Automatic annotation (TrEMBL):
Entry similarity comment: Belongs to the tetraspanin (TM4SF) family.
Signal peptide range in chain numbering: 1-21
Protein name in the entry: Tetraspanin
Membrane topology designation: Multi-pass membrane protein
Chief location: membrane
Origin species: Caloenas nicobarica
Subcellular location: Membrane
Keyword Signal: yes
The keyword Glycoprotein is assigned to this record: no
GO cellular component: plasma membrane
Entry-linked Pfam families: Tetraspanin
Segments passing through the bilayer: 37-59, 66-89, 169-195
Length: 202
């Protein structure tokens, strides 16, 4: 249950807190990345529910509930492995999608510097602490005032770094949860066998 709640909190923090939340506040956002976070939150909710039934099975010493708990953990473990593989494969797609969104906004701004896109591109620059999309000096772009000069013209690189860092955190959490799931399956079977042996003795 604690692991499930931790996953829910982590997924919601990635979605609604930090840099990714700033990028998502605009109409254009990397939906591929956020779909993965919604799946993560859903998995956390399922884990919390399964944990509750596992506690009930242990408290009532029910072999049926413990067996169902083991089966659910096995399904969750398989889903985690599958999601991890898809996240690794889809990382490049998520980065390309986010970079394409910035490039479209950048091109719109260059065509009409005084339009509505001015606020949008500035929002991206503030969130990523960058300005521009190439190595040339950027002039006329709405850039943050206190931006660091080495990062003044590499927003595409910053987008890649941000998504890489967040997916790295998701990977660490996924490994920790997978380990917890394995221990849960082992202990549920040990408890189930102990209950069976106790009843046989009686």
């Amino acid at each position: 249950q604690l692991a499930g709640l931790a996953v829910i909190a982590f997924g919601l923090w990635l979605r609604f807190g930090g840099v990714m939340a700033d990028l998502a506040s605009d109409k254009k956002s990397p939906e591929y990345f956020f779909m993965g976070l919604y799946v993560l939150v859903g998995a956390g909710a399922i884990m919390t529910t399964v944990g509750f039934f596992g506690c009930c099975g242990a408290a009532r010493e029910s072999q049926c509930l413990l067996g169902a708990f083991f089966a659910c953990l096995l399904v969750i473990f398989a889903a985690e492995i599958t999601a991890g593989v898809f996240a690794f494969i889809g990382k490049k797609v998520a980065i390309q999608e986010a970079q394409k969104i910035y490039e479209d906004i950048y091109d719109d701004y260059m065509k009409n510097p005084g339009g509505k896109v001015n606020k949008t591109i500035y929002h991206y620059h503030v969130a990523l602490q960058c300005c521009g999309k190439d190595s040339m000096e950027q002039t006329g772009l709405p850039c943050p005032e206190n931006i660091q000069l080495p990062k003044a013209s590499n927003c595409l690189v910053e987008i890649q770094n941000v998504i890489d860092a967040h997916l790295h955190l998701v990977g660490i959490i996924g490994i920790a949860i997978a380990g917890t799931t394995i221990f849960g399956m082992i202990f549920s079977m040990v408890l189930c066998c102990a209950i069976r042996n106790t009843r046989d003795m009686i």
